[in-house]
Amino acid sequence: MKTTSKIILAGAVVVVGLAITYRAVNTAPDETLPANEQMAQILNDGGCAFCHTANPDLPFYATWPVASSMIKAHVDEGYKMFDIEPMMKAIADGTAVNEVDLAKVEKCVADGTMPLASYYLAHWGSSLTQSKTDIALDWVKQHREQFYPNELAAAEFKNEPVRPIPDSVAVDPAKVQLGKELYHDTRLSGDNTVSCASCHAIETAGVDNEQFSDGIGGQLGGINAPTSYNSVFNFVQFWDGRAATLAEQAAGPPLNPVEMGSKSFDEIAAKLAEDADFSKRFLAVYPEGLNEKTITDAIAEYEKTLLTPDCPFDLYLKGDKNAMTADQIEGYALFKDYKCATCHVGVIMGGQSYELMGQRANYFQNREENEKSGLTDSDNGRWAQTKVERDRYRFKTPTLRNVALTWPYYHDGSVPTLEKAIEMMAEYQVGRKMPESEVAKVKTFLDALTGKYQGETLTNQNKQ
Fold first, then answer.
1. Does the pLDDT at position 150 exceed 90?
2. Is the dihedral of CA 381, 382, 383, 389 positive or negative?
3. What is the secondary structure of 395-457 as a DSSP string?
4. Residue 275 has pLDDT above 70, yes or no
5. pLDDT of res. 461
6. Which residues touch 411 (CB under 8 Å, ≥6 apart)?
């Protein structure tokens, strides 16, 4: 057989093989399968795990010329953006998929943005058919109904990626009262000058509106103080997630030499015990006495009451169509169009995942060049706890509740205005230039996230 004929025959075999592969993986899952198995098949057929896992099981053509370099680039970029393994495990186990993962998959399926055209060239058969798209979106809806029921929302908004804040969560009133006193008590600090409220004041939206907070002896912290309002709904506490609960978070600052500077909780407990009235009331609620566990438990119980429900947006989701203006409603649509609602999800529109700061542009490099601001330990984000390289520059997504009152913005407190923060988020996280008119509408929408504390609209006594 001539060489030319052999090449033609080989090419024909490849084409037929690819056609068979394409047809196989583009067949909709058997409708008799459980919903989770159907979704898993769609994700597997689409080759999602080829790019969105740490150690992908690549297809046979991954070593072919041209395809190899393209696939490597896709794997590097895909895994940086999204790790699908936790989602696949949750589906297999029948447990809840993280709300952020759910929203990300829903968005790209609904928009048809995955795979990209360049991905499709290298991953034959990975496109989604309409039937698969319908199955996937219906699965997301069912999953939300099962694990994240939007019970406060009107029927038309029950499948939104965000939910209204409830009026309250279960607490022990006696512990709350003690926790409130401790939250404002400067005796938690080494020199009796700094309290929790010094950096997270109730009167200033749970923040101090400073880039970095003043600690004991006038020392400055290295990261922007997040709001204490609605913090009970965070999946972890601190920007780097080093505390799993509110009580664990409350144990950190008192012993931090820069923040509150106490030597130990034994020292704190001894000072508090000198207060006969407080000690008596404390022992009535906590018979085990004053110690780290009881002190932080009381503070955490108080912080559970720092909720701000019934902002205009929540009222809108509950069915009041007049609660938001036309511009605010359009701003919410833009908020979703720019993929903001894939990370800022759930009850507090954030606080449910760690995200890379600078997904589409190098935030830290640009900050160094533009502001001559070098990197600090606080810029490492989640990496500081895990030492996993992928976690470098990843931070817990902040809540957007009351965001109009909690300037300055970002973990480094480097952005003074909400408008600038919005503009930069579009650039660094989405890779899009947001027109000024759209920035204004998104800002107007974010203004509608200012809720009510104890029945009164939250305010900030500081002036921006």
1. yes
2. negative
3. EEPPP-TTGGGS-SBTTTT-B--HHHHHHHHIIIII--PPPHHHHHHHHHHHHTT--EETTEE
4. yes
5. 93
6. 223, 224, 239, 357, 378, 379, 381, 395, 398
Residue type, 287: P
Q: 27 pLDDT band (50/70/90 cuts)?
A: confident
Does the pLDDT value for residue 352 go beyond 70? Answer: yes
CA distance 50 to 255: 45
**DSSP reduced 3-state for 336:** helix
Do residues 314 and 163 lie in contact, with contact meaning Cβ atoms separated by under 8 Å?
Answer: no
What string of H, E and C letters represents the secondary structure of 69-95? HHHHHHHHHHHHHCCCHHHHHHHHHCC
Alpha-carbon separation of residue 348 from 7, 44, 157, 352, 375 (angstroms): 60, 32, 16, 9, 29
Specify the pLDDT at position 13.
39
pLDDT of residue 76: 82
pLDDT-derived band at 463, boundaries 50, 70, 90: confident
Which residue is associated with the tokens 């009351």?
A: 402
Structure tokens that stand for 258 in this block: 């820069």
- Report the pLDDT value the prediction gives residue 6, as an integer from 0 to 100: 42
The separation between CA 151 and the C-alpha centre of its own chain, rounded to angstroms, equals: 21
Which residue type does 390 have?
R
Those residues with Cβ within 8 angstroms of residue 50's Cβ, 6 or more apart along the chain or in another chain = 56, 57, 58, 59, 71, 74, 75, 78, 123
Distance CA 14, CA 371 (A): 54
Query: Which amino acid makes up residue 86?
Result: P
Name the one residue in this structure whose structure tokens are 């002036």.
463
Determine the average pLDDT of the residues in 53-73.
76
Average pLDDT over residues 261-276: 98
Q: Which residues contact 396 (CB under 8 A, 6 or more apart)?
A: 234, 235, 236, 238, 239, 240, 241, 351, 353, 354, 382
Helix (H, G, I), strand (E, B) or coil at 60: helix
Q: What is the DSSP letter of 380?
A: G
Contacts by residues 218-223 (CB-CB < 8 Å, ≥ 24 positions apart): 219/258, 220/258, 221/258, 221/259, 222/258, 222/376, 222/377, 222/378, 223/378, 223/411, 223/412, 223/413
- pLDDT at residue 11, as a whole number: 45
Q: Where are the alpha helices (DSSP H) in 126-223?
A: 130-147, 173-183, 196-199
Q: Is the pTM of this model over 0.85?
A: yes
Which residues are tagged catalytic? 259
Q: Is the pLDDT of residue 4 over 60?
A: no
Any idea which residue has 């019934």 for tokens?
A: 310
User: Which residues contact residue 147 at a Cβ distance below 8 angstroms, ignoring those fewer than 6 apart?
Assistant: 96, 97
